[in-house]
Write a structure and sequence with these properties.
By secondary structure, this protein is of the alpha/beta class. 34% of the residues lie in helices and 22% in strands. Belongs to the HAD-like hydrolase superfamily. SerB family.
């Protein structure tokens, strides 16, 4: 889960003497009628007994609202970290440990991966389905996202080559019939945009989809790979520089600078190993329904909450 990024052995001891908030985030989907043990809140139910949350920091009050519980100004210790991990696993919730002094408005940019982060699908896998190769392409995609294939350029080139000859109309079908936004995506984007935070969609996927999402969601900047299309058919090639892990990180730095910010003022959201470099330079990294290697290194992991949980991480 997310707080494991605050590895007690890897971070200076003094960091853990600073005040932090524990934020317990309920699942995005409704959990059904109150069983009498769940913590009530104004906007939903958190499937954790209040007593279990209080036990994390007995001398601190617990605030609940909208399916979120907050314990303010705790000092993180190895024992607390272990208790937090156990609670998250037992109740199927996400627990974030955040700097008590930080506010969402301190950030200037939210940068997002597209496939399996902002949207629920891997577009290349769905495109491959139209030429009967989804299983083969999906296997390569999954291995690449888990970090088992180290060369993203090579894995993308292999997958795109399998699409050679496919009618380009398949792209429109994927967009219209299969592409769905991840839970909480639109709410999250409206919330950060209302604060004046700029948005970047940076993807190892394709411009066909990022361009349409940019228009639909009023995103500031997008960057992705361009599929070559000749005479209405995919050629099996990508045009120009491939957007790999290094390019993603460089894009975050460049776009942040474009808006007068540094990477430390960026929030980066991703799910796969090719997101790790841009997550590493960010002020806050969010692993969304992510592969284990990404969850381990992220500041926060949303395994159950929607993307809109970002709006609840920090105090108002």
């Amino acid at each position: 889960m997310g707080p494991s990024a605050h590895d007690i052995c890897a971070v200076d001891y003094l960091h853990f003497q600073m005040a932090h908030d524990l934020v317990i985030l309920g699942p995005h989907a409704p959990i059904g009628p109150d069983s009498g043990t769940a913590t009530q809140s104004a906007g939903g139910r958190l499937p954790v007994p209040l007593t279990a949350i209080q036990a994390l920091a007995p001398s601190h009050a617990v605030e609940t609202a909208h399916g979120v519980a907050r314990v303010r100004d705790v000092v993180v210790t190895p024992a607390l970290q272990s208790a937090v991990d156990a609670l998250a696993q037992q109740y199927g919730v996400d627990v974030a440990i955040v700097d008590s002094a930080r506010r969402l408005s301190d950030f200037k940019l939210v940068a997002m991966d597209m496939d399996s982060t902002l949207i629920t699908i891997e577009c290349i896998d769905e495109i491959a389905d139209y030429c009967g190769l989804k299983a083969e392409v999906s296997a390569i995609t999954e291995a690449a996202m888990r970090g088992e294939i180290k060369d993203f350029n090579e894995s993308l080139t292999r997958r795109v080559a399998l699409l050679k000859g496919l009618d380009a109309s398949a792209l429109e079908k994927v967009f219209e019939e299969r592409l769905q936004l991840s839970p909480g995506a639109e709410t999250m984007l409206r919330g950060v945009q209302a604060l004046g935070i700029r948005t970047l969609l940076v993807s190892g996927g394709f411009t066909f989809f990022t361009d349409r999402l940019k228009a639909h969601l009023n995103l500031d900047v997008t960057r992705a790979n361009t599929l070559e299309i000749v005479d209405g058919k995919l050629t099996g090639r990508v045009l120009g520089e491939i957007v790999n892990a290094e390019v993603k990180a460089r894009t975050v730095t460049e776009v942040a600078a474009q808006f007068g910010a540094t990477p430390a003022q960026a929030i980066v959201m991703g799910d796969g190993s090719n997101d790790l470099q841009m997550m590493a330079i960010a002020g806050l990294s969010v692993a969304f329904r992510a592969k284990p290697v990404v969850r381990e290194k992220a500041s926060v992991a949303f395994n159950h909450a929607g993307l809109d949980a970002l709006l609840s991480l920090f105090r108002r």
